[in-house]
Structure formats: C-alpha cells, structure tokens
Amino acid sequence: MRNDPRRDIIHNFLLPTLLFAALGGMTWAVRGCSGYGAVNGCVFAGVTWGAAWWFIARDPAAGQSRRYASGWIVLALAVGIGLSGGRGWMQWPSFFRGELLIDAQAGKFVPISRGYGFLWLFIAGVPWAGIGACMLAWCGSARPLRARDWLLRIGCGIGAAYAALQLFHAYPEIFLPFYKTMQAQYLDAITHPETTAFPNLRRLYGDNRLAIMHLGIYLGFLAYEIGRRDGKNVVLIATVGILNGLGWSLCQNWQWAQNLWPNWNFNFWRCWESSGGISIGIAYGVAYYLVNRPDSNEAMQARWQNARPSLERFGLYFGLLLGLGLSIKNGLRGWANIYIGNEDYWSRILTLIIGPLMLLGLLFLLRQLWRRPLPSPPQGDVFPRAYGIIWLVLIVQNILAQLVTGPHNNFSENAFCVYYAALFILSAAIVRHYHRLKTIVV
C-alpha cells in the first residue's frame, strides 16, 4: 500500500480530508446551536476531529509508522480548538455588504470596503483552526522536550499574545476601521455594551482585540517551532492556519446567499457554520497528507513509539472524558431549551449530575494509571479497543446533533437533520474502511 502512489493519495489525502470535512460539516454547524456556542461548541468539534485523526493515524501495534498518532491528540484538539472559541464573529459579516455597523439594533452603519470582510475573516480563521494545530504538533515533536523547553514553548505563545495586545492598544487605528473619527463610539461601553446581542462598535473593538490576541498566540507557537527547526511541526501549523484563513474568507459568512435566493427563508447562517467546519476539516486533511504519511523505516517507527504508554492511555481517556462529558451536558441542555425551556435551570441541574460523574471518571483514570501501569516500552497494542472508541465518539456526537436540531415543524431544522445523517453515514463508511485496512495490514 505504501509504495502505490494512487493508494497513497487515496488513504493519506482523499479519505482523511473527506472524513475531517464531513465531521466538520456536522460539528461546526452544531457548534452554534442551542446549548453550545463559543468554547463549548468548539470543544464539541475538537474532540470529534481529534478522535478521528488519532484513529486513522494509529497502527494496531506497539510501534507507530506515523509521527502524529499519539493518544494525546484527542485532548490537544479538544483544548486547542475549544480555546479558540472564546470570541465571536458576528461583527464582521456586514463588511461583506459594505457596511460598518455602528448600531445594528437601530439600523445605523457607515460604508466600508468589502476588503475588510476578507481581511478579518482571514485573521479570525487562521488561529481558530491553527491553535488546535499547534497543540496537535506538540504530540509529535521531532526531539524530546525538557521542562525548560516546554516553558519556553508556552512562553512564546503567551509572550506573542501580550505583544499583540500591546500593539493593538498602542495603534488602534491600524486594527479598527475609522477609529480616528469614531473613537468615542468604539469606547462607549454604556450606550453600546459588549454584552448586547446586536453588533456595534464596542463589540467590534472587543472581537478585533481578541482576534489579534489569538493570532499572536498562534504566531508565537509557530515561531517556537521555526526556532527549533522542527520542519514538520512548522508545516502542520502553517498549513492548517493559512488554508482555513483563506477558506473562511472565501465563504464570506454566506452573506451572498440572500442575494441568490431572496425569497427563500432558510437558515443560511448555519450553512455558513457548516461550511466553516468543512474548511477546517479540509485544512487538517491537507496537513495530514503533508506531515503524517507512514514511514517504513523501523528506526523511525521506534522513534514514534511512546515510552510512557500508561500516560498516553490516560491522555486519550481524559480527552474523551472531558470532550464527551461537556458535549453531553451541553447537548442535553440545548435539547431542554428547545423543547422544554428555561435553559439556565437545566444547565444547573445537568452540571450537578454530569460534573460529579466526570470527576469520578477522572479519579478512576488516575487510579488505573497508578495501579495498572503498562510495560514500557509497550509490548503490544496500547489501544486494542480503538475501533469501539471511535464508534462511541461518532454515535454520541451524532445523537447530540439530532437532539439540538429542532423543532421538527421547521423545514430548515429537518433539512439539517437529514444533512447530519448523510454526513454520519459518510463518516462511518470511511471509519469502517480504515478499520478493515488496519486488520488486513496486521
């Protein structure tokens, strides 16, 4: 298989990209649904992508032929993409209409170049996918890192974020359109607070600041890998960030949809969310092909063998516990909000139930880590139940997607239910194919 260029393209590029794009089309659309949003919604997407990457990359053996196949990848993408969700994007879509919204509730705006829309969706898209790629890259560094190396790596991200914020505050006119003539409105937190649901200049100020800060984090982490001369980590991080920045810019938040179908009442915003997830999935698929093809060299396979298999197993299960636990809690909250109401009440109830269960799960994992360590180096497959794990993730996340898509007397909601089901069938078929492939290779 590895010596056949056609099969190499199929199994290392086309199918991974199709899988990540299909999962992105569902999870990123759900990201903005009832119960999710912001960090919670991005964790929902991140844990799903992480499980998919880990499953198709790993070999059912002690040695690994691919550099990025660690069980820590699930936690890395859940946390990395989750952290990127700590900001909004509602301030920028109007740019594609040539409008800078001063007060959306009152319908006030000033004309602005559409180029700002492409610029800011690119700036937003790069770290939104790229920070997760940074943490994924940490799961497969070319050379081991000591404690001081980790401090420097993390410090580069924090330092670059601080520098980006200092630039923003020192030269706001560079980052905020028409700042010199509208400074008072940008800083008016009383008339137009950031907490309002409607776009205004104060919220634009906050979102642009956070976008620049996140871009700083991304560039700081990338700079560290460049300085360390870890070529594949650099390619992985740069590919995901740049491709998704371009993809988001081209999608234009689907602001063009209403012009194409002026009389069609459809949820075009969720179409944008779905296409944004497809863009992220494609970016990760291309990066997978560029940096994560198998290496038949036995010395290299031994190099990617984890010397701490018990810790790797803990990392995988902790990532699943965190990602699926939060996803289930927020999905049930979203379902209750749609069909029962009083989302805040159900959020408290579910936190009181699922929170302790997650804590008990963590304590159980720590107990297993302490009392049942695996031999080091590992003598066989560290994850013999990998196929069951990926099916658990697919089934749970797709059930949650159906729960928060409603009510079913709405045509748009039913259309998305069918769409998610189709994406599930596609994802399941690809996962099944990889499972058979691994069985045949073994």
SSE map:
Elements: H1 5-31, H2 38-57, H3 73-84, E1 99-103, E2 108-111, H4 115-137, H5 147-170, H6 172-175, H7 179-186, H8 201-228, H9 231-251, H10 257-260, H11 268-291, H12 298-303, H13 309-339, H14 343-371, H15 386-403, H16 411-441
Antiparallel strand pairs: 1-2
Helix pairs in contact: 1-2, 1-11, 1-16, 2-3, 2-13, 2-15, 3-4, 3-13, 4-8, 4-9, 5-8, 8-9, 9-11, 13-14, 13-15, 15-16
The share of residues in extended strands comes to under 5%
Q: What is the residue-averaged pLDDT?
A: 93
Give the neighbour order of strands across the main sheet.
1-2
Amino- and carboxy-terminal Cα gap: 13 Å
Assembly annotation: single chain
Shape: globular
What kind of sheet is the major sheet?
Answer: 2 strands, antiparallel
Q: What is the CA-atom radius of gyration, in angstroms? A: 22 Å
Q: Tally the helices.
A: 16
Number of extended strands:
2
**Secondary structure: helix percent:** over 70%
Order of helices and strands: HHHEEHHHHHHHHHHHHH
Count of individual domains: 1
What structural class results from the helix and strand content?
A: mainly alpha
Summarize the structure in short.
With 442 residues, the protein is mainly alpha-helical.
Features:
globular; two-stranded antiparallel sheet; single chain; 442 residues; 2% strand
